[in-house]
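User: I'm putting together notes for a lab meeting next week and I want to include a structural view of one of the chains we've been expressing. I don't have a solved structure, so I'd like a prediction I can at least talk through. The sequence is below, exactly as it appears in our construct file.
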Amino acid sequence: MLRSSCYTPRSANGHPRQNHRLRTRRRTRNPTAPAGRFDVLVAEHVRRLRQIAMGDVTLFVILLDPSAPLLATRARAEMMAALAMVDYVVPAGERAAEGLLSHFTTSEIVREESADLLRAERLSQHVQRRHQQ
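Assistant: Thanks for the context. Below is the predicted structure for the 133-residue chain, given as structure tokens.
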């Protein structure tokens, strides 16, 4: 079910990454599911995902819908899928996300929603300060 509704990382020409299959097979023992909005994707997201992906894990990013998105779901999913540490991106509304997350144990889920709100607020403040200069 997860595979059919998810984005897999792709190369610049749009084809699935060749090494993706090998990497996924090797890393299926420890699934990890960070859930967040990732709207707009910033360097802090990448650092956090890199930290979460350390070790022998398969990273399933659950992409939640923000209340007032800056970017479309597809754009956010494609950006997340382009990150080397991400194995799968699953776009999901709040209700669907809870169903997806029920397939993972509590220790495999990393809730990033609160951190996402802080990141978005900091980005907004930064842009406003720059605009006022």
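A couple of points you could mention at the meeting. The chain has one domain: 3-132. The CA atoms of residues 32 and 108 lie 5 Å apart.

User: Perfect, that's what I needed.
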